[in-house]
């Protein structure tokens, strides 16, 4: 059995419904930034405050790549029908409707991910270099782009990533770019790992984490396909000296000013 559940939570609120009615189409809030800038946790809290759905594009990418890998290697998939057509190479994934529809259905379930009955939720949401490298393959990025836009066409959403405001939703009503110094991000990432009970498995100190984040930043900003950058019309927030509550409040106010206020 393969079970995949992406972190997408649909909520309803009078404000969110009013925003959709006012503009006639679902609203997208794009939150971008480098690794460990607090995008996912912030986006989730913003979505909850606004009554929007939250889409973790990193988890979505990891799930897509994992399912495609399982599909291309039948020996690792004990039961269940193929995800789509014949096995495909990770470098040339198909963009067939069945796999996109299946991922979309999975995305509406509670947070979980398991393969053969084993919980793999943490592995899925971990931002590994392997997932980043595979997601940079043009064919993979194209397939993920279709999926992300399809999911966001059905409800007001807050989506975080590295190219949401520049490539996925270039016309998003609200774009935010979160940033912080590598040192601050490294401390936050280590604290996050400790808080998740993985302190014993962390084999690097602060300096090593800073070096890893700098390397990740370099790779993300210099990749050929949709490199990490702040959209020209995005609001850039340096969160180095801000609490998460302050960041969330700033973004919520921004959405309220740009989107939720009724046109005069």
Automatic annotation (TrEMBL):
GO molecular function: ATP binding; dCMP kinase activity
InterPro entries: Cytidylate_kin, Cytidylate_kinase_dom, P-loop_NTPase
Region (Disordered): 73-97
Biological process per Gene Ontology, one example term: nucleobase-containing compound metabolic process
Domain Cytidylate kinase: 29-256
Record keywords, A-Z: ATP-binding, Kinase, Nucleotide-binding, Transferase
EC number per UniProt: 2.7.4.25
ATP-binding among keywords: yes
Catalytic activity: dCMP + ATP = dCDP + ADP; CMP + ATP = CDP + ADP
Annotated coiled-coil segments of the chain: none
Pfam families (UniProt xref): Cytidylate_kin
UniProt record similarity statement: Belongs to the cytidylate kinase family. Type 1 subfamily.
Protein name per the record: (d)CMP kinase
Source organism phylogeny: Eukaryota, Fungi, Fungi incertae sedis, Blastocladiomycota, Blastocladiomycetes
């Amino acid at each position: 059995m393969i079970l995949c559940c992406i972190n997408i939570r649909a909520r309803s609120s009078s404000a969110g419904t009013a925003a959709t009615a006012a503009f006639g189409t679902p609203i997208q809030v794009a939150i971008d930034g480098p690794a460990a800038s607090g995008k996912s946790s912030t986006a989730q809290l913003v979505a909850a405050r606004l009554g929007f759905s939250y889409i973790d594009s990193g988890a979505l990418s990891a799930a897509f790549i994992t399912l495609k890998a399982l599909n291309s290697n039948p020996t690792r998939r004990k039961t269940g029908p193929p995800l789509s057509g014949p096995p495909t190479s990770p470098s040339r994934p198909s963009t067939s409707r069945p796999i996109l529809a299946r991922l979309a259905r999975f995305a509406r379930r509670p947070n979980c991910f398991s393969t053969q009955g084993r919980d793999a939720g943490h592995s899925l949401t971990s931002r590994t270099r392997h997932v980043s490298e595979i997601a940079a393959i043009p064919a993979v990025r194209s397939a993920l782009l279709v999926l992300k836009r399809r999911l966001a066409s059905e409800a007001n959403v807050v989506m975080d990533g590295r190219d949401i405001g520049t490539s996925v939703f270039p016309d998003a009503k609200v774009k935010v770019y979160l940033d912080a110094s590598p040192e601050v991000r490294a401390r936050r990432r280590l604290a996050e790992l400790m808080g998740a009970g993985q302190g014993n498995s962390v084999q690097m100190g602060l300096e090593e984490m800073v070096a890893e984040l700098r390397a990740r930043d370099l790779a993300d900003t210099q990749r050929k396909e949709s490199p990490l950058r702040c959209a020209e019309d995005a609001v850039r927030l340096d969160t180095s000296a801000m609490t998460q509550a302050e960041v969330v409040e700033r973004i919520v106010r921004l959405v309220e000013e740009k989107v939720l206020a009724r046109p005069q």
